[in-house]
Amino acid sequence: MFFVLLSLIAVSVFGFIFPDSEISEKENRALQQLPIVNFEKIKNGSYMEEIEAYLSDQFIFRDEIVAVNNFIDRFLGRTEFNGVYSGKNNRLFEIPSVYDGERVGKAVSAINYFSQSCGVAHQNIILVPNSTEILSAELPAYLELASQKQQIETIYSALSSEIFKVDAITTLENCADKSGLYFKTDHHWTSSAAYEVFLVYAQMLGINASELNFTASVVSDSFYGTLSASSGIYEEADNLEVIIPENIAGTFFVQNYDTLTKTSSVFDLSKLQSSNQYDLFFGGNFSKIQISTKNLNGKKLLVIKDSYANNFVPFLIPFFEKIVIVDPRYFSDNIYDVLSDNGFSHLLFLYNVNTFLEDTVLVDMIY
Amino acid sequence: MVFSSVVFLTVFLPVAVLIYFLPQIFFPGEKRKKLIPYKNAVLCVLSLIFYAWGEPRNIALMLLSIVFNYTIALHMKKYEYDKEHRRYLLIFALVFNLGLLFFYKYSGFAAENIAQLLGFTNNYTAPLLPIGISFYTFQILSYVIDVYRQRCGVQKNILSFALYITFFPQLIAGPIVQYVDIETQLNERTEAFDRVFNGLSRFVVGLTKKVILANSAGEAYEALTINGFSEISAFGAWTAILFFAFQIYFDFSGYSDMAIGLGGIFGFCFPENFRHPYCADSITDFWRRWHITLSLWFRDYVYIPLGGNRCSVIRNIFNLSVVWCLTGLWHGASWNFLLWGIYYLILLIAEKYILKDIIAKIPQIFRKIVTFILVLFGWVLFACEDISVISEFFNALFGANGISDNHSSYVVSSELVMLILMCVCSTEIFILKEENKNKLPILVFRAMTVTFLLVLSILCLVSDTYNPFLYFRF
Q1: SS (H, E, C) chain A
Q2: Are B147 and B90 in contact (CB under 8 A)?
Q3: Cβ atoms B215, B311 nearer than 8 A
Q4: CB neighbours (10 Å) of residue B325?
Q5: Minimal Cβ distance to B469: which of A8, A29, A52
Q6: What is the least distance, in Å, from the CA of A297 to any CA of chain B?
Q7: Element (DSSP H or E) covering residue B230
Q8: Taking every pair of C-alpha atoms in chain B, what is the biggest distance, in angstroms?
Q9: Chain B contact for A98, CB < 8 A?
Q10: CA angle, corner A202, sides to A201 and A203, nearest 5?
Q11: Residue B313's pLDDT band (cuts 50, 70, 90)
């Protein structure tokens, strides 16, 4: 009958015997260690908070406990897990960003200002809808979300007519196999979604993309992305597929200005062993990356982007002499220096709607 | 510290039980009684650690209160035959204890309203409320008043007195134990095997109520009312107030269960605090089932001293008014709580003086339904600290914003199983008959259920701290 009490004691004894972990792979963070006794910390209560964090962080079978709890929650019909919706067919969705008209207005006028002052001839923008919009049929029942189609329309119509808008949403909506356009466990679009939108963009640029062959290959069948990490739900792994133009090997090199490395590939295959395999594309997000090719046609492209561009840019390599990719979230230099150093002929903004709605750094970079 | 935390469950409680019971090995049989001073000291120290864990800065205030009231009571004993003198001491104690309560709990509210009334700008910043002050002040008052009335003896052992005030099971959220109820237990109590088991089961049931039911209900209420009340549909408003009712019931009664269970482990017998209040068949009945120890406290220390009901109707209504205004304000320093108290005052007077005969003729099932709906309306007043949204909430309940909306359907559909579970758990179907409680198969079943619920609660508690850091997100 003392079983209950015994089990409590057992748990705490096991907890002490069991060696503490430094980090959690699943949560991708350092775990709380046993705090050192410190009078000041006891007085302000932070010592006690650290003890509580220590006990729950180092709780025996922590990862398994979270998994079981998630299983029970889903069994009960719950659909929201730490900022992630768990929908039909094991699909996870990022909870969409809220549309803040004032913030969007600032971003739009910044882009218009940049459009006017940058002096680049061909300007385009691609706002990519998120999976909640395209795959709304797989959302949890009764869940009603703001229409990203309307949001994109509002933003596009407020942008200067100098900037040509790529209608990514219609393209993706008209795809036959929509479920393959987004990962089930990650908030990104897949390479095939990016490819579909690339075809539209290429047409707008007057590029004949059909002259080229593209090869698709699955590089991982065990991809669990950010949405799995956030929610703790690891139900059905995604395939990670890369699509690249044929015969481009050896025609270009990639310079990363953060890691100060030069490579001849857009892929960092070592990331397939890491906790986020999506970093495969360019090794992740960096402030500035430059791709220089042997195709000396004078076409130079500046891409201002978020992570949705990482699997999109490789398609463009055969058509440009130089591609400079700037991620405003990490970029702290002067963007106008980049402009004057390179003399771009093309400019592309590529964002997914969620990041665009939350972004505040693009404005800072432009002004 | 709170009961529903990993540190309490896996460190504090096991360690407390070990330190408390371990010396018993060396004191078999009758000799165990000699351990009482040791046991009281252990519980006292543990209780202070428990209290200081969350709020180290308020421990001094608590110790001051203990020493002050202990001394007052000793003086009252000295003037055993001088009622006049005792009365002065009592007034002094009332001013001190209620003064502290007023200063910490109500001074901000008072300053704000006085400033508004006189047209000042209010620069007063109220002190932070020490945890449990409403509860332990009432316990202290019950002691001092009863010593004054000579309804109980004087506690000469300061450790025993400190234990009565600080005992960690009931320190933070009740039940409000009157000193007379526990006087003898402080010095004579038996901890028996079956009481420890019953105590543990009761504790785990309370823990489950809090961690699984109350927290889910709270999240559902938050989710439903996230956009305020001006757009919520009737369906959303009704389910929201239902979830609120379940949140407050399971939270509060869960804490009481945990307190009563923990008390039982250490040999104490605390009074019951909740008896399935949502099954009440009248408002009067509801208040015999809801937060019973608070109602008893107000009955014994306010209502009866004022004359109770052995007086004219007018005087009785006055007495009731005092009690219910105080009951309202006890729950929080805000107008809506006062309104909530007055709401019950009106209902109770109506039941007592006007509807008494009519109610008796209505079938019980209808009485229960009407009572529950009236209680839900009460929770609307309780839930809206901002008085101005109360009318919005009522409008929504009566369909001002349409019958249903997708957001509410979404929230309710994902919490539907829990909602059904909450409904079932707030009825009386799980009550075991006293004679069946200790039959072996039932005992085994209870032990298994308790273990299962404990595992489930810990699962929930640990999972709540799941907090992935997504540097690659941005």
Answers
A1: CCHHHHHHHHHHHHHHHCCCCCEECCCCEECCCCCCCCHHHHHCCHHHHHHHHHHHHCCCCHHHHHHHHHHHHHHCCCCECCCEEECHHHCEEECCCCCCHHHHHHHHHHHHHHHHHHCCCEEEEEEECCHHHHCHHHCCCCCCCCCHHHHHHHHHHHCCCCEEEECHHHHHHCCCCHHHHECCCCCCECHHHHHHHHHHHHHHHCCCHHHCCEEEEEEEEEECCHHHHHHCCCCCCEEEEEEEECCCCCCEEEEECCCCEEECCCECHHHHHCCCHHHHECCCCCCEEEEEECCCCCCEEEEEECHHHCCCHHHHHHHCCEEEEECCCCCCCCHHHHHHHHCCCEEEEEEEHHHHHHCCHHHHHHC
A2: no
A3: no
A4: 15
A5: A29
A6: 34
A7: none
A8: 77
A9: no
A10: 90
A11: confident
Q: What residues contact B47, with CB distance under 8 A and at least 6 apart? A: B163, B166, B167, B168, B171
Copy the structure tokens of residue A254: 């990639």
Cβ–Cβ contacts within 10 Å for residue A293, how many?
19
pLDDT classification of B325: cutoffs 50, 70, 90: very high
Residue A12 to residue B10, Cβ atoms within 8 A: yes
Beta strand A346-352 with A261-263 is unpaired
Residues in B closer than 8 angstroms to A57, CB to CB, are 465
CB contact under 8 A, A15 and B461: no
Helices (DSSP H) in B331-435: which residue ranges? 335-349, 356-361, 364-383, 388-397, 406-425
Q: Which of A148-162, A328-342, B15-29 is the least confident region?
A: B15-29
Chain B interface, mutation test: which of A2, A6, A8, most B Cβ atoms within 10 Å? A8
- Cis ω for the linkage preceding B305 (within 30 of 0): no
What confidence tier does B474 reach under pLDDT thresholds 50, 70, 90? very low
Q: At what angle do helices B335-349 and B313-330 cross, to 10 degrees?
A: 150
Give B23's pLDDT tier (boundaries 50, 70, 90). Answer: confident
Tally A–B CB contacts below 8 A.
138
The residue that leads in pLDDT, B216 or A33, is B216
Whether residue B266 contacts residue B43, with contact meaning beta carbons closer than 8 Å, is answered with yes
Q: Which of B196, B415, B473 sits opposite A226 (nearest CB)?
A: B473
CA distance A59 to B229: 40
Size of chain B, expressed as the number of residues it contains:
474
Instruction: Provide the Cα torsion B39, B42, B43, B49; round to 10°.
Output: 180
Contact B415 A78 (CB under 8 A): yes
Chain A residues 305-344 with CB within 8 Å of chain B: 329
ipTM: 0.74
Give the pLDDT confidence of A72-112 residue by residue, as tens digits.
Answer: 888 888 888 888 999 999 999 999 999 999 999 999 999 99
Euclidean distance between CA atoms B383 and B394, whole angstroms:
12
Q: Facing residues of A323 across strands?
A: A291, A301
Kindly report, residue by residue over A104-133, the tens digit of the pLDDT: 999 999 999 999 998 888 999 999 999 999
Q: Is B75 considered catalytic here?
A: no
Angle of CA points B417, B419, B422, to nearest 5°: 110
CA distance A194 to A366: 26
Of the candidates B6, B412, B216, B455, the one whose C-alpha atom is nearest the C-alpha of residue A68 is B455
Active-site residue, from B75, B85, B331, B407: B331
Two tokens, residue A251 = 């025609």
* C-alpha distance across the termini of chain A, in Å: 70
What are the helix (H) ranges across B119-266? 133-149, 158-166, 168-171, 179-182, 193-208, 215-224, 234-265
A48 touches chain B (CB under 8 A): yes
Assess whether pLDDT exceeds 80 at residue A24. no
- Nearest-Cα distance to chain B for A26, in Å, is 7
